[in-house]
Amino acid sequence: AEVLDSWQLAGCYIQNVNYGENNYATSDPLQITIAIKYDNANHVILGTEALVGGAGDNGIEITSAGVAPE
Fold it and tell me: Binning pLDDT at 50, 70 and 90, where does residue 69 land?
């Protein structure tokens, strides 16, 4: 399969982690939110750099949910 577009991030670091509500009495899924900051981002479309980023206040937020370990 051909890659249509991609992002290349440089200088990534974790800014914040939120583990949400954790209840050991239940086996409910645990939601974890991670804020990742980066210094530079390049957007590549069909092998050509379409957007070359620079330093700035950039970031993404990732949320993942799973089952708490027993």
Answer: very low
Q: Structure pTM?
A: 0.53
Q: Distance (Å, rounded) from C-alpha 24 to C-alpha 27?
A: 7
- Token readout for 26 is 């239940």
Given CA atoms 52, 57, 12, 39 in this order, what sign does their dihedral have? positive
By DSSP bridging, strand 48-52 and strand 29-38 are: unpaired
Separation of alpha carbons 1 and 66, rounded Å: 30
**Tokens for 37?**
């900051």
Cα gap 10→42, rounded to integer Å: 9
